[in-house]
Design brief:
The chain is of the alpha/beta class and 361 residues long. The chain has eleven helices and nine strands. The chain has helices spanning 14-83, 90-97, 99-119, 126-130, 147-154, 161-169, 187-199, 215-229, 246-255, 307-316, 326-335, and strands spanning 134-141, 172-180, 202-209, 232-238, 242-244, 262-271, 293-306, 340-343, 358-360. The strands form two sheets. It has a seven-stranded mixed sheet with strand order 3-2-1-4-7-6-8, sandwiched between helices. Strands 5-9 form a two-stranded antiparallel ribbon. The radius of gyration is 55 Å and the shape is elongated. The N and C termini lie far apart (177 Å).
């Protein structure tokens, strides 16, 4: 059915009019789409560029801030390094305290003291100051329980009173040698002090503890004390179970006048006892080699040292080793020095020789 629209010059069908309108609408839609996509595509690069600028500014700002922080930290570190105190070496510290000079003076004083000892300038050395050299100092080892033995000796071979003074005028000093009790100042010490006040024939070793196990160390203290108190040519050690013939001993010593490096006695050797619990056991037995035999040494009953050997013991007493027995201990000291070992059977107290100067009580 055709429906006409009137107007002016004629009528057009309604179908044609609708078709032309639809065609116009189709033509207009693609155009609007293309214009919208074009505008959006042109906006994206602008946004990306703007974001890139922001990112660049952020990174640049952080880098600048980090560089400033590094500069600040570097300056602070340099200031702190300049303010840190210098680390001093040990020598610098000692120098700043004056210790080096003190240490040098101590070493020099020790050297002077050693030289003085070797030359006879010793504390309490009355004979050295007077210029008179004694012939001998005889030390008779004794103990706290040997009071009766001492009285027997005083009544037999050992002079007393004026006779003792006359013997000293001949250049021979005799003293009982004893240390101190483990309990200083007890009745043992007081009894010895009282006996010494009466007889005046003791050499009391203040630094030595009198005990059986300390006998090897007693030699250090005896020779050191004797050298410091008296300047003699010879120093003699005697056990308290020995009788002496003083005149015969003096004759032997006078025949050796002027001897240096003299180590004289009844020389012996023997096996080292390695079994603990046996008599004469030596705890340091392994030091004497596979043969387990003692070196040559003088019997402990009676032996003689010249002046320079006694001084050697005094000077080096702190570093001298000791063994289980005093005779092997002194013998070991003599092995390390330039000494002359003299074996004289007249000094063998247990021998049967008639001319001997000593005998066992």
């Amino acid at each position: 059915m055709d429906i006409g629209v009137g107007g002016g010059g004629g009528r057009l069908p309604i179908r044609e009019t609708l078709a032309s309108a639809l065609r116009k609408e189709r033509r207009s839609k693609p155009h609007s789409k293309s214009s919208g996509s074009g505008s959006s595509s042109s906006t994206v690069p602008l946004v990306m560029g703007f974001l890139s600028c922001l990112a660049w500014l952020y990174v640049a700002g952080r880098l600048w801030q980090d560089s400033q922080n590094r500069i600040l930290l570097t300056s602070l570190l340099e200031k702190n390094l300049n303010n840190v105190p210098k680390v001093l070496t040990t020598d610098e510290k000692l120098r700043s305290l004056g210790c080096n000079d003190i240490a040098r003076r101590i070493v020099e004083a020790e050297m002077d003291l050693t030289l003085a000892k070797s030359q006879g300038y010793l504390r309490g050395n009355a004979s050295a100051s007077s210029g008179k050299k004694l012939l001998a100092v005889i030390g008779v080892y004794t103990g706290f329980g040997s009071h009766l033995k001492r009285n027997v000796f005083r009544g037999s071979w050992m002079p007393t009173g004026d006779a003792l003074k006359k013997l000293e005028e001949r250049g021979v000093i005799i003293r009982f040698v004893i240390g101190r009790s483990a309990n200083r100042g007890d009745s043992l010490d007081r009894n010895i002090d009282e006996e010494n006040r009466r007889t005046k024939d003791f050499l009391i070793l203040e630094s030595h503890e009198e005990a059986t196990e300390e006998v090897p160390r007693k030699a250090k203290f005896f020779f050191s004390a004797a050298v410091e108190m008296w300047d003699a040519e010879f120093y003699v050690k005697v056990d308290d179970n020995i009788n002496l013939q003083i005149d015969a001993l003096i004759e032997i010593l006078e025949s050796r006048h002027g001897s240096q490096g003299l180590y004289m006695g009844c020389m012996k050797s023997g096996s080292v006892i390695t079994e603990e619990g046996k008599q004469w056991y030596e705890p340091e037995w392994w030091k004497f080699g596979d043969s387990k035999t003692y070196f040559r040494h003088a019997s402990g009953s009676l032996f003689i040292l010249s002046n320079n050997l006694a001084r050697y013991i005094n000077t080096n007493s702190a570093s001298l080793a000791t063994y289980a027995h005093d005779d092997t201990t002194v013998g070991s000291w003599m092995m390390g020095v330039d000494s002359t070992h003299v074996d004289d059977d007249r000094l063998c107290c247990s021998s049967s020789r008639q001319e001997k100067v000593c005998s066992v009580v």
